[in-house]
Amino acid sequence: MACFDSSKGSLEEDSYEGAVGGELSGCALAMMEKERESLLSPSENHGTFNSSSSSSFQAATPLQGYDVEFDPSLESKYECPICLMALRNAVQTPCGHRFCKNCIEKSIRDTGQRCPVDNEMLSEDQLFPDNFAKREILSLTVRCPNSGCADKMELRHLENHLALCQFATVPCPQCQQSVRKSHLEEHTTVECQRRPMSCPDCVASFVYEDRELHEQQCPFANVKCQYCEMDLIRDQMESHCDTDCPKAPIACNFSTFGCKERMQRHNLAQHMQEFTQMHMRYMAEFLRGLSLNGTTPKSLWALGPSVSSEDQGAAALVPASSGPRGPVSCSSNCAPSQPSEEMQRIRDMDGRLVKQDHQLRELIIFKETQGAFDAQLTWPLQGTIRLAILDHGPEGQHHMEVMETKPDLQAFQKPTILRNPKGFGYVTFMHLHQLNQRAYVKDDTMLIRCEVTPRFDNMPHREGPTVQPRGPEASVSRD
Question: What's the pTM?
Answer without folding.
Answer: 0.34
